[in-house]
Amino acid sequence: MPCLTNHNDALSKQKLTTFEPPESEHRKISAYQPLPSARPLDHRQLSSHHTSLAMASGLSPLLFRSALRSATCRAARPQFRAFSLTAVRPSDTLQVHRDSPKNNANIPFKFTKENEAVIDEILKRYPPQYKKAAVMPILDLGQRQHGFTSISVMNEVARLLEMPPQRVYEVASFYTMYNRTPVGKYFIQACTTTPCQLGGVGSDVIVKAIIDHLGIKQGETTKDGLFTLLEVECLGACVNAPMVQINDDYYEDLTPETTVQLLDALKATATATGGAAAAQVPKPGPINSGRQTCENSKGLTNLTSEPWGPEVTRSDL
């Protein structure tokens, strides 16, 4: 291919002559000859300039290697964060509505005569034009009657209070005390926030004891319909950690042994026909810890004297 070769040779020669300026345009300037617009450099500036050139020439390989190493590390490093392996706390497992045979708008719901009387007493606390402010206590009343806050309960509350059903749905879906799916006779809410994790044996040990004894996972109900387990956020009894709430009662200072005894006593009460089994259920509060309510574990250690009298208070109070 002589034509192509000759053409390339011509291009090469053209490139060489293109970057070689004519002899007439060469300016033979010393390395440190001052420019016309600049003042001459003195010996101190020349010395500093020499030093800068020496440092630049000596550091150039090092800077190049450092930049290359940084670029290589950035290219090899993953550009995304790894997924967290922490287990999700299902504290809102029961706060989702899905139509089911037990929970849909076609299931009728009406308050009993007794609860209608309670509703009348509740509404007396509010001006007639603001009776929708009673939505929370009436929702709670419906949940206690029906067992959970179904869509039919919410619709009936909306009808009674003359408010849009969506407003009732917003309240029921915001507050976690409204269970929007059926729960067992004994609704166990186990606190697993930091104080209960650190207090006593720790809430994880208590939750494991409940799971192992009942054979259910969090958010599930036993086959006999007696127990539902749910992990929740702080219940406000941090000083008596670990603790659980079962229906309306707090059981505190728990150990795996006392937790199992409590569950067995509740089950015996639900299946017994007499009242003897009910006497075996521990009293709400600290269990077998030897203290009353939230007092110090060593007993009363302060506020042991008689309270101050009126001499230390203002006379006009």
From TrEMBL:
Molecular-function annotations in GO: 2 iron, 2 sulfur cluster binding; metal ion binding; NADH dehydrogenase (ubiquinone) activity; oxidoreductase activity
Requisite cofactors: [2Fe-2S] cluster
Xref: CDD domains: TRX_Fd_NuoE
One Pfam family linked to the record: 2Fe-2S_thioredx
Taxonomic superkingdom: Eukaryota
Renumbered residue ranges of the record's region Disordered: 275-317
Keywords annotated in UniProt: 2Fe-2S, Iron, Iron-sulfur, Metal-binding, NAD, Translocase, Ubiquinone
Gene Ontology CC annotations of this record: catalytic complex; membrane protein complex; mitochondrial inner membrane
GO biological process: mitochondrial electron transport, NADH to ubiquinone
Compositional bias of kind Polar residues: 289-305
NCBIfam families: nuoE_fam
Family the UniProt entry places it in: Belongs to the complex I 24 kDa subunit family.
Protein name (database record): NADH-ubiquinone oxidoreductase 24 kDa subunit, mitochondrial
Native source organism of the sequence: Colletotrichum tanaceti
Gene that this polypeptide is encoded by: nuo-24
